[in-house]
Amino acid sequence: MARVAAIIGGGVIGGGWAARFLLNGWDVRVFDPDPEAERKISEVLANARVSMPGLSDTALPAEGALTFHDTIAQTVEGAEWIQESVPERLDMKLKVYAEIQAHCAADAIIGSSTSGFKPSELQEGATRPGQIAVTHPFNPVYLLPLIELVPTDANSADMIARAKGVISDIGMFPLHVRKEIDAHIADRFLEAVWREALWLVKDGVATTEEIDEAIRMGFGIRWAQMGLFDTYRVAGGEAGMKHFMAQFGPALKWPWTKLMDVPEFNDELVDLIAGQSDEQSGHMTIREMERIRDNNLVSMMRALKAQNFGAGAVMNRHDVKLALDAGMARRAADIADPSKPVVTVSRAVPIDWLDYNGHMTESRYLHAFADASDRLMEIIGCDQDYIATGGSFFTAETHIRHIDETHLGSRIEVRTRVLMAEGKKMHLWHEMYAGDKLLATGEHILIHVSLETRRPAPFSPEIAANLAMISEAQSGLPAPEGAGRYVGQPR
Ligand SMILES: NC(=O)C1=CN([C@@H]2O[C@H](COP(=O)(O)OP(=O)(O)OC[C@H]3O[C@@H](n4cnc5c(N)ncnc54)[C@H](O)[C@@H]3O)[C@@H](O)[C@H]2O)C=CC1
Ligand SMILES: C[N+](C)(C)CC(=O)CC(=O)[O-]
Fold first, then answer.
1. ipTM tops the 0.85 cut
2. Fewest 10 Å CB contacts: which of 45, 91, 369, 446?
3. pLDDT tens for residues 232-270?
4. Could you please report the per-residue DSSP string of 93-155?
5. Taking 80 as the threshold, does the pLDDT of residue 35 lie above it?
6. Quick one: 348 and 443 in the same domain?
7. What phi, psi does 330 have (nearest 5°)?
8. How, if at all, do strands 425-434 and 411-422 pair?
9. pTM
10. How far is the CA of 114 from the centre of ligand 2 (A)?
């Protein structure tokens, strides 16, 4: 049975949470008095369905069911996780918690999306304060992994651990904020940068566009991959952080920031900023801008996945969980039925796999088949630990047949057969499907090698036994149509 999340407040952030839970297989119930909420959430979901599966190299589970409800009572009944995302007004949030707690399970977790309130303020007057904590996300919630989890002493270690578990299960990164503070950690930075930017525009030093260029052409990319302190450590050269601080320490006393002071918030300031922003980007709709943002974020995060670093490492860990949840084998002993082809890849086609023809480009077919071979290697015992001992496989020959096209977001599966495995050689046959439609076949000869001599070497006994088990179990299958074909061979 699917796990249930209740979303109270389905605006920009609640909609993002709904997409995050739904696409990770949870059933989602929404309460929002706005008659437009259902339309808005369906538009956010449409964007999320295109972008979010592209983050994973394993298919997401089947989407949960989305329902809208007229009362908080119906929405929260039986929910394991309740996410409050109503407007940033303390009185409103407290009223909503009273209603939630009157109807929800005593062990349900109530997370608040609040950007700035402290959890002790949210727990004030609650029936069960230990049930409520801050779980502050970042927009778009369905792509960015960070959740600032801010508890108080009223929250038990068990509640905090369960909250971290759920956040990780939906592919996010729980950052446990050890001491509550207004605006948590990240929003204090955002607010500082925001105030400084307002001054730069008000003083006529820079336009909104120039400020955005200053961020996205330089330090914004740097921050995205390494954060603040590691970036400055590297900037200190070989002497590291001490040198960086010695060099730039005196600047702390120079007038490099106006943070101690804020511009007067009046209509003139709002018109100045909003006017420049309209000029900068008013030619696009917000939905168009969201799609550009989402495609950029997915592409950047996929690059970080390839490095297994930062947000990319979080995504990679989530992929392993998704594969295990989907019952995909990681070891030969886990294969449910070895007499059938083994599912070695199950994923969606991401944005960076498309070409100018609007379909999956040819090199990505090899990418997917190479991933399938890597997974089969892992299954038969040639995993990272084994490779570290000096044995591995090199691919000696590949033949791909492109049979049908596939498009962005389409779910593809590679099913693999071991046609032969003897001595040092393994002959693999991959078939790529979208549903029942055959998209491509890949035929590969791999040679087991010693990474020390870079020469062919016999399989280890474990690999030999696993390969024998799979190829023998699959020997009853009919010969694959197209195996052994060469380019241009008559059919
Ligand atoms: N927009 C952002 O960039 C971020 C906002 N947040 C936080 O998320 C929360 C929500 O913010 P947004 O989604 O931006 O606001 P929003 O204005 O887009 O959405 C709020 C939604 O709450 C609904 N609502 C109002 N009263 C309600 C009630 N009594 N019960 C249920 N729903 C009710 C409204 O109809 C609206 O759809 C705030 O606490 C905010 O600080 C957190 C991270 C980022
Ligand atoms: C501007 N903001 C305070 C609402 C921002 C956030 O809370 C986080 C974000 O997504 O930038």
1. yes
2. 91
3. 888 888 877 888 888 887 888 887 887 767 778 789 988
4. HHHHHHHHHHHS-TT-EEEE--SS--HHHHHTT-SSGGGEEEEE--SSTTT--EEEEE--TTS
5. yes
6. yes
7. -110, -15
8. antiparallel
9. 0.86
10. 9
Percent of the chain topping pLDDT 90: 79
DSSP string, 21-76: HHHTT-EEEEE-S-TTHHHHHHHHHHHHHHHGGGG-SSPPPPP--EEE-SSHHHHH
Atom 4 of ligand 2, residue of closest alpha carbon: 115
What is the rounded average pLDDT of the residues 109-126?
A: 98
- Does 491 map to a domain? no
For ligand 1, atom 18, name the residue with the nearest CA. Answer: 11
Q: Is 488 a domain residue? A: no
Tell me the mean pLDDT in the region 441-450: 98
Structure tokens at 15: 């909609």
Ligand nearest to the CA of 90: 1
Closest protein CA for atom 36 of ligand 1:
11
Instruction: State the pLDDT confidence band at 25, using cuts at 50, 70 and 90.
Output: very high
Q: Is the CB of 413 under 6 A from ligand 1?
A: no
Q: How many domains does the chain have?
A: 3
